[in-house]
Write a structure and sequence with these properties.
- The longest helix is centred in the N-terminal third of the chain and has 19 residues.
- The protein has an eight-stranded mixed beta sheet. It has a three-stranded antiparallel beta sheet with strand order 10-9-12, with no helix packed on it.
- The protein is 35% helix and 15% strand.
- Strand 3 and strand 4 form a beta hairpin.
Length: 433
């Protein structure tokens, strides 16, 4: 059958859903454009090009079950898989390029996450509910201990609305290794991670328990570029906007049943394909557009949702009376997101600081911009990774980086001893214990 006939045939059918009942919303926006031609690949995206007020929808996509034959179908343009079916398909074999079943599944996952709707749900991904309940109890114990005498910061949500465990992975491993190993020894969690990121991915996770009455998040994209202000995001060329989404995978494991009224995550399917998605979501007009067009699915205990980090999404309002919407939010990272060599940037920043300060005074007349290029090669400019219990973000603004601290020292004309003291504080904030 020709591609055209395939396309015409698929467009004549409504989406099919097997084994899941829900109202299906067929259409979701995929991309925005301006009146003018978009930027060429690799060029900078200018702020004037990045506001939804000058955009208009140019297409809408539908998700069809026939496009993803290993799925159970779709709900609201979100592809839904059966955990039992996938476990039977994969068996106990090693998941690698030599296994045909895994190759078939991985290829389909990538199609969903890349140019498809960008989000998928695996029903009963965590099928051992007794284990899940024990892990939930361990998480609640950690929340109780950590909540004594402090209010944890959060990103995209006001402090106090939620109970948050930053770095829940390490904390569970230290407190309950007997639960940690079987919990993370999950074939389907690994299957999605391997499909999107390849071998030796690095897992991180944070628990979020949203209490009844907690407000929805603003729509946003996730790490990396999603955690940067617009004025910095525009400094990254368009190809980096595309590349960023291939370095991480976002997911959420439902530890309790999450009916719609409890506010499970809302999504804008296909929005990872917006040309300027990382520069769009803060615009107030876009937020209103998002409120009108987002999709939301109820989840049951043991379900897991996985999505492209470039997909625009937001946790919903918890309008329930008694549901603490507890999820373990996994962020899986590519093993390639690190330099090849180990460099002690704290050490070399202190070593060259006197020279940076001298040039700032003598050449820059107090303006550190005259040594910006040398500083960028020296100090860590990324705020992450860090310990978000101690190094608390300010809303969606990341905590200061080493680069920020040294630049501040040059502006304030700190001497070497003061710079060392400030960098010592900076490093201690990033330690996990």
């Amino acid at each position: 059958m020709s591609l055209l006939m395939n396309f015409q045939r698929s467009m004549s059918r409504a989406p099919v859903l097997r084994g899941v009942s829900s109202t299906i919303r067929r259409f979701a926006p995929r991309s925005f454009s301006t009146q003018e031609d978009g930027p060429q690949h690799g060029l900078k995206l200018q702020p004037s090009q990045s506001r939804v007020s000058s955009y208009f929808p140019i297409s809408s996509d539908s998700t069809f079950a026939t496009d993803y034959p290993l799925s159970e179908g779709n709900m609201s343009n979100i592809v839904v898989y059966s955990g039992d079916t996938l476990r039977d398909m994969l068996g106990d074999r090693e998941m690698s390029s030599t296994d045909d079943a895994f190759n078939e599944l991985a290829s389909e996952f990538v199609r969903v996450l890349d140019k498809g709707p960008g989000v998928l749900v695996i029903k009963d991904c965590f099928s051992d509910h007794d284990l899940l309940d024990e892990v939930t109890e361990a998480f609640n114990d950690i929340i109780k201990v950590e909540s004594e005498g402090k209010t944890a910061g959060d990103h995209f949500s006001g402090a106090g609305n939620n109970s948050r465990i930053w770095n829940s992975q390490e904390k569970l491993a230290i407190e309950r290794p007997d639960l940690y190993v079987p919990y993370y020894n999950n074939k389907l969690l690994s299957a999605v991670s391997l499909a999107w990121l390849g071998p030796f991915y690095q897992m991180t996770s944070q628990v979020n328990s949203s209490h009844p009455g907690s407000a929805a998040q603003d729509p946003h994209c996730d790490y990396h570029l999603g955690f940067r202000p617009d004025e910095l995001v525009v400094e990254y060329a368009s190809h980096i906007h595309s590349m960023s989404q291939y370095l991480t995978l976002q997911g959420a494991i439902a530890h309790v049943d999450m009916p719609i009224e409890s506010g499970p995550t809302t999504f804008l399917p296909y929005s990872q394909n917006f040309e300027r998605n990382y520069l769009t979501w803060r615009d107030e007009k876009f937020k209103e557009y998002y409120r009108q067009r987002n999709c939301q699915l109820p989840l049951e205990k043991g379900d897991a949702v996985f999505f492209n980090p470039g997909l625009i999404h937001a946790a919903g309002d918890n309008l329930s009376e008694n549901v603490d919407r507890l999820a373990n939010l996994v962020q899986v990272n590519s093993c390639f997101g690190v330099p090849m060599e180990t460099v002690d940037r704290y050490r070399i920043s202190l070593a060259v600081y006197p020279e940076l300060l001298r040039i700032t005074k003598e050449v820059g007349h107090g303006d550190p911009s005259c040594v910006r290029e040398a500083l960028m090669s020296t100090a860590q400019g990324n705020s992450f990774p860090t310990n978000l219990d101690r190094d608390v973000p300010g809303g969606s603004t990341p905590p200061p980086s080493m680069y920020d601290r040294v630049y501040e020292g040059l502006m304030m004309k700190w001497d070497v001893d003061e710079m060392k003291e400030q960098l010592d504080i900076h490093m201690r904030l990033r330690d996990t214990h």
